[in-house]
Amino acid sequence: MRKGLFVNLGVLLLVTSLAFATPTKAATNWGVETDVLNKYELITLKLGGLDLAYLLAENLTMRVAFDSFDDTGYTYTTYNSTGGTSVNETRFVETLVGEENVILPEGLPIALPLSIGSVPDYLLYFGQFINVSNSFYLLEELLLNITEYANVTYTAAHSLLDETYLRLYFDLFAPEVNASILSELMGEGDTGLPIALPANITDFKLNTTIKFNATSGLLYDLSIKVRSLSHVDEFTEAFDIDIKYALYVPPPPEPEPEPEPTESPYPWLLPTIAAFMIASVLVVRRRK
Q1: Strands 73-79 and 62-69
Q2: What is the C-alpha to C-alpha distance for residues 252 and 260, in angstroms, rounded to an integer?
Q3: CA distance 13 to 15
Q4: Mind listing the pLDDT tens digit for each residue in 70-83?
Q5: Taking Cα atoms as reference points, which of 125, 128, 115, 23 lies closest to residue 69?
């Protein structure tokens, strides 16, 4: 009851503060473009310190192209590693949170608007929503899966916006977790990984970071970090997971090497000519 009261109060403060700082209507502004392929790839998949990203990176590579934009959202096409395509859409609609309406994404937010409706700075607005509501809004499905297998005793969420990124942080702790959740999150049944997932896990700490480009609003990367202990018979050891899925950014072009100074094949020629000319002048003057 008290938690719901704080959420409602936080959302009310968010909406009230923005009402004083924003005009009645602002144009929807998108910082991303249509018909540009944005490639996302698995950068890291570490289980127990062993990086297995190379086993799954090719299959999990995804390309996204935005097809169209309007005042409430966009459509986009995804291309998977096997050539399959899927057309999707994301809408930003007023959603009732507590007793207030908040503009939130419906669908996967590959990009956030820079401004929309009565909100001239949506990245700031969305970050403030995460702060005041302590919401796992973007990770609801993940949180639902975890709570089915664990007694979650702590959750926290906050954001940080600077000139480069909007960063969203989500933290969770559960004293015990049935590790079958790991198999479910990585795919039903056999994960195909050359490592056995533990059956019993304690001290389960989950830290998730989602970054959006502060200039374009484009999703930049998703990082998941798990720190926990696994138990097999009487043995206990650390069981850690690190996952990073990110936008591919081509490396900057290497600077062209500066041309090496070329040496004259006859380095003695110019000094010799100069000396000869000086000597000739002196001889002419002496004759005069």
Answers
A1: antiparallel
A2: 23
A3: 6
A4: 999 999 999 988 88
A5: 115
Distance CA 16, CA 7 (A): 14
Residue 138 tokens read as 């973007």
DSSP secondary structure of 126-186: HHHHHHHHT--GGGHHHHHHHHHHB---EEEEEEEE-SSEEEEEEEEEEEEEETHHHHHHH
Is the CB of residue 44 less than 8 Å from the CB of residue 60? no
Q: Which residue has the tokens 């998949």?
A: 45
Q: How far is CA 96 from CA 12, 28, 93, 100, 103, in A?
A: 11, 21, 10, 6, 9
User: Rounded to an integer, what distance in angstroms lies between the CA atom of residue 213 and that of residue 220?
Assistant: 6
pLDDT digits (tens, 9 = 90+) for 171-193: 999 998 876 666 666 554 445 56
pLDDT of 185 reads 60
CB of 166 closer than 8 Å to CB of 214: yes
Averaged pLDDT, 238-259 = 86
